């Protein structure tokens, strides 16, 4: 009798333990992505970006994507000891949904916004900037962006970017045109289909260097930080990436890359 009791107790405990382990294991694999270990065991990291955004990610004459973000992605792959795979998206807004499985993270001059943070997680910032306005040769008499907020004026911004949000909020009297890409916005300003373009400061500054007849309006329209975006739910990965950003700065590598990509940016005043 006592022997039977013992067997029953052991059986019961085994069933409870198996059930408990079963639930915890399936919960782990279903709900917590393990990007850091997956990337290392696969031997590659898939970085999403949207090229055409100088000097962060753009194509050189031989069609290779280069820039500040690309160099950061290279450093990241080195630190993880894996191969770097870059996936270029034509539409900026596709980057957030690509984090659903197509890519491991986004390094693409992405502003950390509270709305995006409902959908993805952001690391600590790695760059501070904001939005500015550039006008074409038709509009060089304009000094202040408020003068552009008038009926008849056309302002271009890029679909799905912070430039579009701020244009919608600040330019309630002008007409806001949405370009599908960075290149399309530049084309519209070149063809004089629009009067002004609102976008991130470093890109605007790189434009004034190639278009000396255009004028950058001095006031900044917003203050923004760029962060690496990762899928939600993987705190382990986020913590490691924050250490990576901090180490990049401590080692002096960040300053080296900053000088390489930003030291030449300067807009001379337009007469
Ligand atoms: N910083 C802006 C944003 O997050 C625009 C970035 C555009 N970047 C690019 N790679 N095209 O909305």
UniProtKB/TrEMBL annotation:
| A Pfam family | SBP_bac_3
Record-annotated Solute-binding protein family 3/N-terminal domain positions? 44-265
Q: Name one GO cellular component term.
A: membrane
Keyword ATP-binding attached: no
Superkingdom in the source lineage? Bacteria
Q: Where in the cell is it found?
A: Cell envelope
Keywords (alphabetical) are: Signal
The protein's predominant localisation is other
- Leader sequence segment: 1-26
Gene3D superfamilies named among the record's database cross-references: Periplasmic binding protein-like II
Q: Where is the Ionotropic glutamate receptor C-terminal domain?
A: 44-264
What Gene Ontology molecular function terms does this protein carry? Answer: ligand-gated monoatomic ion channel activity
The family note in this entry says: Belongs to the bacterial solute-binding protein 3 family.
What name does UniProt use for this protein? Amino acid ABC transporter substrate-binding protein
Organism the protein comes from = Candidatus Desantisbacteria bacterium CG_4_10_14_0_8_um_filter_48_22
């Amino acid at each position: 009798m006592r022997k039977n009791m013992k067997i029953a107790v052991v059986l019961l405990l085994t069933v409870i333990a198996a059930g408990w382990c079963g639930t915890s294991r399936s919960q782990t694999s279903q709900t917590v992505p393990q990007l850091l270990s997956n990337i290392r065991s696969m031997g590659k990291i898939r970085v999403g970006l949207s090229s055409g955004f100088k000097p962060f990610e753009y194509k050189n004459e031989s069609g290779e994507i280069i820039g500040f973000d690309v160099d950061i992605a290279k450093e990241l792959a080195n630190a993880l000891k894996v191969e770097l795979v870059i996936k270029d998206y034509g539409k900026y807004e596709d980057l957030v949904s690509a984090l659903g499985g197509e890519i491991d993270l986004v390094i693409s001059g992405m502003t950390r916004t509270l709305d995006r943070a409902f959908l993805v997680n952001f690391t600590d910032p790695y760059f501070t900037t904001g939005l500015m306005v550039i006008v074409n040769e038709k509009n060089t008499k304009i000094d202040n962006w408020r003068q552009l907020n008038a009926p008849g004026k056309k302002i271009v911004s890029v679909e799905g970017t912070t430039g579009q949000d701020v244009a919608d909020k600040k330019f309630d009297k002008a007409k806001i045109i949405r370009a599908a890409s960075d290149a399309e916005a530049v084309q519209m300003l070149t063809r004089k289909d629009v009067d002004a373009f609102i976008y991130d400061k470093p890109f605007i500054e790189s434009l004034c260097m190639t278009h000396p007849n255009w004028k950058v309006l001095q006031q900044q329209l917003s203050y923004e930080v760029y962060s690496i975006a990762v899928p939600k739910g993987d705190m382990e990965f986020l913590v490691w990436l924050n250490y990576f950003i901090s180490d990049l700065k401590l080692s002096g590598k960040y300053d080296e890359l900053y000088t390489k990509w930003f030291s030449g940016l300067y807009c001379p005043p337009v007469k």
